Fold this protein.
Amino acid sequence: MGAEQINYGHGMIERTYKYFPYKLMLQSVAGLILALCQTVLGEPQNSTIHFTNGDWLRGKLKSYDKATGISWKHSDSQSLLQFNIDSITEVTLDSAPPVKLPPGNICEVQLINGDHFRGNLVGITEKKFQFDTWHSGRVDVNRRSIRKIAPLAKNLKTIFQGPGSDSGWTHGKITNEVLGQSGKWRYHNGGFHAKPAASIARNLNLPDRSRLSFDLDWNGSLHLAFALYTDTLHPISLSTKENEPDFGGFYSIQLNSYSVNLLPVKKNEPLTYLGQATLPGFRNESKSHVEFFASKPEKMIGVAINGKVIRKWTDSDGFVGEGTGVRIVHQGRGAVRIANLRAEEWDGRFQEPSTHPIGSENDLVKLINNDRMEGTVMGISDGKLQVKTSEGEFPVPLERVKQIEPSTSKTSLNMPLKERVIAYLSDGSQLTFLLDQWAKTEVKVSSPSFGQATFNPDAIMRMEFLAYLTRADVRTVYRVKKGDTLSSIARKNNSSIQSIRRANPPLNSSKLREGQQLVIPKNP
């Protein structure tokens, strides 16, 4: 049966799966997962497939095509397991570190649907912006689908990008009665995960001007502390810092569900907050892209969330950071994941949100001196943009450009939900496309924004599948939060316990898990 494929899509399974230690008659995808999770893995399997009922399975993605769905290999099965994508929420993959782009016109590109990636701007035509990328080669992006293009300063070094493991990181023990028993950050699929209180740190050799960015996912209450420019890799108890072993000064950025605070910390000086910025609506979120900016010469620390600068602080007493390391402390409330962590040199410039209205007929070019040019970006040659305005055509050196905001269209990225996939790459990029085929050496995709493209499979860290949202009986999908009961979930969603049970078989209301996803049916 080595080449046989067993289909575990919707419906009952009519055969006994004989390769497990116990011969169970598996009645559903959930039954299959429960049996598999009880076995001992015969070999490392770092990829996981996740289902609409909250179950998941380790293994390896072997292939995908539209006709047969996902073929999945598990070490306890001599046959490939076959899954329909309308029962799948996501697949996490064992990705490879990104390949550094060669020097050139490297830009950060954001599309109107929130997708983003980095690439070398190599050409501009009437309908396309052309980029060379590390993950899919030359990509021609439809102008009408681009929200903004931000050229990056040349010769800025990326100091760290990952994590690819916890090698090189120092795990610290937290001793605090309030935070509870100390746990440990765990590495999995390109990110660090923590639920109990935990500390992890690394000397990243932060430069005098730095930008630290990462993707943050959480479930439940959010309480994190980031020590920047620290010289000690073990956590410091702020309430008893005078009794700690000697340490140099650092900045503590304290991020929670409601606000972000900045606290300069020196061993023998009193703690004085530099100020707080509130985060309206943040408590209703579960994921964000976070950036920290620092400049020793300007004595400045800044925080941006989802591309928007939340606050910039200036320390009038001087920059207190005496080290070059970073320490991340989870304070043990809720579950947290940090991924796509990038530390790099910074030129002191903040990107700004796009302001050019969607649907505008002209392109907008914003310069670093805050001048603006409105017209048409015609091309690029020798590092200069050719910009045509009502006053004529002008060459503009790319190093003078803060960002380009092309004319856009609201409908330029329409894709069928049934086939839509959101891919997260190992360099922090996010791209939405239609998945046409997954093979061992290539992934074929298509998108209204960049046409057909072939990706390197090792570049993709995670894929979210949206097909299950098209089922006729599905209104939405609810992620279980701390303290939820089936009754409270039904009330929140104007549904009933009985209908939620029918939509999520088999569902044990006494064992709801934080983060578990429940289908909320249209008919209450």
Remarks:
- The chain is about 5% helix and 45% strand.
- The longest strand covers residues 209-219.
- Residues 29-37 form the longest helix (9 residues).
- The domain at 5-92 is CATH 2.30.30.100 (SH3 type barrels.).
